[in-house]
Amino acid sequence: MKADVLAGPRSALRPLRHRDFRLLWTGLLISNTGTWMQFVAVGYLVDRLTLSPFYLGVLALAQAVPRFLLAPVGGALADRWDRKALLFWTNAWLAATGLALVILTAAGWVRVWHVVVLAGLNSALQSFDMPARHSWIPSLVEEDEVLQAVTLNSVAFNGAGILGPSLAGLVIAAGGEAACFLLNAVSYGAVLLALQRMGAPPPPGSGRASVLEEIREAVRLVRTDRTVATVLATVAALNFLGRPYFRLMPAFAREVLHTDAVGLGLLQAAPGVGTLLAPWYVTAGRRGGSGRLLHRSTCALGVCVVLFAFSPGLGWALALLVAAGLFQSAALSSANALVQTSVDPSIRGRVMGLYSVTAFGMFTLGSFPFGALAEWVGTAAALAVGGALTSLAAWVAGPRLRRIG
Prior knowledge:
It contains 16 helices and no strands. By secondary structure, the protein is mainly alpha-helical. The chain has one domain: Up-down Bundle (Growth Hormone, Chain: A). The protein is globular, with a radius of gyration of 20 Å. The two termini are 32 Å apart.
């Protein structure tokens, strides 16, 4: 990659000129491809075993509860402990849970409760991974590159959602869900290798106060800082109302589009295509302020989800999911950067722990009531309700968001 492509002040790829950020980003891109394969395979497996969107909601609830309980603790530890060591061990244990799924599925022993328990354990481990990883990013790049770095980090996760789900559909069709779980377990080696080659993170804080007191300090900051509070409230609404479409995709593919595992893989890959476009959209859209970008993107995501719910066919559904991925990534990237640049570095890990609750925690929690609603009124109607409420929530928060720089 040419240096001048990365060096320009408006280049969406500028953060990649920093070696440690580039190492971590590359490792995450590989590992997240495996994560997406497992995500698709787990949803397909649960839907195959139960033929019920309600159980997809139960699966999401099992992931939500550990995130709510442990992400604040993970954030506090990210401010106290060596972030590199914390990331290394969480990723090593995540690989181990993938191997457990391989054994259970390949042997024919797997039951729904196995999948639910292991999904909860995965979420517990990610509660420590996410705050450490996100709070480390601002230290790897220059201050004016944080939004672009966060967006690229989103690309490493959601962009892998193009290849991962597409491969998952093919792998499931050829070798079953166990093959996806095995590839995911192996993919964690890329992150572990990247971490070994990276430099040391900033030294942790003194940790003189108790973990509980440090969590309370972060909560007090959120309650008193209107910018952080408004952004986190918007992220919570976006994820609780707007993003359950992704967890309920297996049921939507079966009920509405009548497609198979390959079609499901394409549907779950489509938002990743939009994510790849997000760095350039964010770079162009930040001129009006990150708050306005968050507002516009959240409104647009809600509209995309409503239209997706009434897709007349697979082609329309894929196009709308690409747009949804673009706006979702832009909204979450701008929110993440606003939060990280609004707080002192000494408290950043704890605040990112709370951000993890409002992002992944609310996404998985929202999937439970919308899964129950889908069981009652149908998956398409449930998703349309969520999309409409997302745009309404963004409209209500609009005046405050537009005042944020």
